[in-house]
Amino acid sequence: MKLRGLYAITPEDIGRVADAVASGALCALQYRNKSAPAARRIGEARALAQLCRRHGVPLIINDDLELALEVGAEGLHLGIEDGDLAAARARLPGRILGASCYDRLELARRAVAAGADYVAFGSVFASPTKPGAMRAPLALFGHDLGVPKVAIGGITAENAPQLVAAGADAVAVLSDLFDAPDVAARAREYAKVFAHGIA
Predict the structure, then answer these.
(1) How many CB atoms lie within 10 A of CB 17?
(2) Phi–psi pair at 181, nearest 5 degrees
(3) By C-alpha distance, which of 25, 5, 63, 8 is closest to 178?
(4) 50, 28, 32, 54: which is closest to 41 by C-alpha?
(5) What top-level class would CATH report for the domain 5-196?
(6) Which of 159, 171, 153, 165 is nearest to 199 (CA)?
């Protein structure tokens, strides 16, 4: 699959997500909300699915296969303890399947063998969202795994060029994007990183 650029992850309050999706600068949007009641999660995921379809942005659901199927999302992302990749692959033919691989190359290789369409490594930098997360060395992005490699954790428009240079195909961003005064403008800054290699 082709996955290159800014991979946005939704904040707790999805009110500003539409600005990012409409910016034309996202390669994907991941809906991640583990604390909200099920009814709210279904409602938000449905609304995001409609929004993303209008703008041609794949919606990927974090850690919830049933929700991804319920709202007709384009994909699913699973962590190491959030479900079996091979079983998810069987239930999501033709859809995107991603896997968190943390700082472990062997996890990435196993994920690809199980049918993952992309792998994510991180936290690459100190992250305000997950301050205790293990750190992933940039050298991981230099390995050819046959699928896109996504960097996550503490990424900003200023440090993103390091990741592109190291071999990351996409950068997953939450805080630096949705805490920005102008979300669409910040999204376009990331697009420039991938177009020109500069912030």
Answers:
(1) 24
(2) -60, -35
(3) 8
(4) 32
(5) alpha beta
(6) 159
Q: Which two tokens stand for residue 64?
A: 């919830």
- Helix ranges, the chain (H): 17-22, 38-55, 65-71, 85-91, 105-113, 160-166, 175-178, 183-196
Determine the 3-state secondary structure of 114 from DSSP: coil
**Can you give the residue ranges of every domain in the chain?**
5-196
Token pair, residue 190, equals: 């990331």
Q: Is 150:124 a contact under the CB 8 Å cutoff?
A: no
- Using DSSP bridges, classify how beta strands 96-102 and 118-122 pair: parallel, antiparallel or unpaired: parallel
Query: Can you give the pLDDT of all 199 residues of the chain as single tens digits?
Result: 789 999 999 999 999 999 999 999 999 999 999 899 999 999 999 999 999 999 999 999 999 999 999 999 999 999 988 889 999 999 999 999 999 999 999 999 999 999 999 999 999 998 877 777 789 999 999 999 999 999 999 999 999 999 999 999 999 999 999 999 999 999 999 999 998 755 4
Q: Which residue has the tokens 């319920």?
A: 70
Cis peptide bond prior to 123, omega within 30° of 0? yes
Encoded tokens for 68: 């991804």
Give pTM, 2 decimals.
Answer: 0.95
Q: What is the residue type of 145?
A: L
In angstroms and rounded to an integer, the radius of gyration of the C-alpha atoms of the chain is: 15
Q: Decide: helix, strand or coil at residue 126.
A: coil
